């Protein structure tokens, strides 16, 4: 019976009726959404500008509920998204060991970030208690962990450069007091013959559960230069010999092998070295041999070595 009645209807008229019904519903729905409403909405809290001596604890409140007045469109938006609110903690109050932001302080910060079409009526709490704890801080030097294999006759000219040179660590005093340096992850380079630069991660101790570091990466670079070798004849200076005697050494000059960059070797001379034979440092009082020591050498050379480490001597009365 129903099927016969449905077939008897004009299908075109039914479609037009349903279309008008849908349009009427949408018009009613949109009209209602444009009206102002009061309801509650949740906001995600993003803490910022912590004082230098404080860190955010693991139990910090990360959401707050507020009663607001706005259009239905806005409420529909808040039902599908989490609105983030920045909470500035630079003016936090320490009240008997608890860190507090008053309701007025929180509302003022929220109102500055909400659009003008939204009225903030009240919050779900009279004050915002923030989980913070006292920390110490100090600058820790960064050390490069280098494993470099140079091509033959190439060296690292000077120390590797690290940028930045330090990392700021903040945490409980008993955690960071023993911390003296932070290493980079290992840098492995082979057949190196030119300058290098690497951006690497820092390696932090796993035991520092409550500490944070200002950075987690650093840049390590080095200047690579070709080096050569040159032999210098350097006079031997004898010290601490007995009064009333002259000392003659055999030989009276010793050869020193110096490894340095080609540019350095051009300006180095025998006068840049001092080789000393200390009479008092003889192993045997009856021995006529004195061991040698280099007490002066040019700075930043790759290596300096005596080709002979001892000389013979004789004492002659004056």
From TrEMBL:
Pfam families: YbbR (PF07949). It comes from the Bacteria. Gene3D superfamilies: YbbR-like domain (2.170.120.40). This is YbbR-like domain-containing protein.
């Amino acid at each position: 019976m129903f099927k016969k009645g449905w077939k008897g209807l004009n299908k075109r008229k039914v479609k037009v009726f349903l279309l008008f019904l849908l349009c009427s519903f949408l018009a009613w729905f949109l009209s209602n959404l444009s009206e102002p409403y009061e309801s509650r909405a949740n906001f995600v809290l993003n803490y910022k500008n912590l004082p230098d001596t404080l860190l955010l604890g693991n139990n910090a409140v990360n959401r707050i509920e507020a009663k607001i007045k706005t259009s239905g469109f806005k409420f529909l938006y808040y039902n599908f998204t989490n609105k983030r609110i920045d909470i500035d903690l630079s003016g936090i109050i320490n009240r008997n060991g608890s860190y507090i932001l008053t309701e007025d302080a929180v509302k003022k910060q929220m109102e500055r970030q909400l659009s003008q079409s939204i009225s903030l009526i009240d919050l779900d709490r009279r004050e915002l208690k923030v989980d913070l704890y006292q920390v110490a801080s100090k600058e820790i030097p960064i050390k490069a962990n280098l494993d470099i294999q140079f091509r033959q006759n190439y060296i690292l000219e000077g120390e590797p450069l690290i940028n930045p040179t330090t990392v700021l660590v903040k945490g409980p005093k008993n955690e960071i007091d023993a911390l003296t340096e932070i290493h980079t992850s290992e840098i492995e380079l082979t057949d190196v013959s030119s300058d290098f630069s690497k951006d690497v991660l820092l390696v932090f101790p796993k035991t520092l559960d409550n500490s944070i570091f200002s950075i987690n990466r650093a840049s390590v670079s080095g200047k690579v230069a070709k080096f050569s070798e040159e032999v210098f004849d350097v006079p031997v200076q004898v010290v601490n010999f007995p009064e009333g005697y002259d000392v003659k050494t055999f030989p009276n000059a010793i050869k020193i092998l110096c490894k340095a960059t080609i540019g350095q070797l051009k300006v180095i001379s025998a006068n840049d070295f001092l080789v000393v034979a200390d009479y008092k440092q003889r192993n045997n009082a009856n021995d006529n041999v004195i061991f040698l020591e280099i007490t002066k050498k040019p700075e930043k050379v790759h290596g300096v070595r005596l080709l002979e480490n001892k000389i013979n001597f004789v004492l002659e009365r004056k």
